[in-house]
Amino acid sequence: MISDNADDLGFDRQRLADIGRTIESDIKRELYDGAVLCVSRGGEIAAFEALGYAERESRREMRDDSVFFSMSVAKQLTVAIVLNRVEAGQLSLTGRVADIIPEFGCRGKENITLYQLLTHTAGLMFGPPPIDVTEIGNLDAVVAATCAAPIEIEPGTAVAYAAIVAHAIMAEMVRRVEGSRRSFQQILNDDLFAPLGMNDTALGKREDLAPRMCPVVVRDRRPGLFEPEILEAVGALIGADWEMPAGGCLTTAGDLSRFANMLGNGGELNGVRILSPAMLDLATRNHTGKKPNQMWSYTAGMRGWKRFPAYLGIGFFLRGEGVFPAPFGTLASPRTFGGLGAGSNMFWVDPDRDLTCVFLSTGLLEESYNVERFQRISDLVLASVIE
Known about the structure:
The chain is globular. Helix content is about 30%, strand content about 15%. The strands form three sheets. Strands 3-2-1-12-11-10-9 form a seven-stranded antiparallel sheet, with helices on both faces. The chain has helices at about 15-30, 75-85, 115-120, 140-150, 165-175, 185-195, 230-235, 255-265, 275-285, 300, 365-385, and strands at about 35-40, 45-55, 60, 70, 200-205, 250, 270, 270-275, 315-320, 335-340, 345-350, 355-360.
């Protein structure tokens, strides 16, 4: 639905409506199954559209309150809590992880800092640690296996995306500085989701959310960054007690939009402050220079992509400058920041335009093609802003 005040918010109503029609066309071509798009400006919703199917096989239609498996947009939810603890003086960006988790300090990991975890420069493994896949939602097991593992790249020398383990370690750091009194599930709920009114968001498969959940189905099964079978298996395994801080949340477009608008409003929403403007200013600057993100190395041969800077902030992806595959859109301002979920989800905040966008989808795409889809949709959103 396009809001009645979309014109007053500075949008071209026709262009805004064309975004939904473009998504519907993709769904009819079976490129993916369904999506929910939420676009806001100045904290006010301009467009909120549910399109296609929550589950194509059963013909269950998408709704604006459909629940999605977060994939990696959960990372930014975890990051918000971590940065909150830095502001509280409980953690330090320059502090060594091993000072809080002593068993982490071995096999080349002795001097890794929280800052390196947040900027994906710690040199940790890309994939899961060497444990059974059924244990990937067991935070204690993932932390123990990560602590026992060696580094893969010398810390500080490269941007090597850690898909699972870095955020598990950060979650454990948050737990330990408060004496391990609460699970990370409880911490996220008590200190982030409930205060922001994100009532349909949880770490793990909360019982009341399950009936509205979109199943994890990979529609594009071309080989790429992730094995389709692994993504589907993780989506099927998620349970009520899962604690996978890097990707194991359930959420809705409305809830994620509240989170994005909190970030866009300088860390505060409706009188609840999670972060300070100073922290967000620091976190949304380029902290990886011109280093490429090693995650995209496979696209040089597969897609012919040339190397481009990673443009990572402290826990956030950035738009950066230049013309290259850019999920937040080639038209976005350089300081635009947000998060991405494997083959499926994104949110971003363009601070120059006071604009936020949330896109959650079903029927996953191969990751490089997903980035191109995100870029296309993001540019359609940005091109609809005319004032």
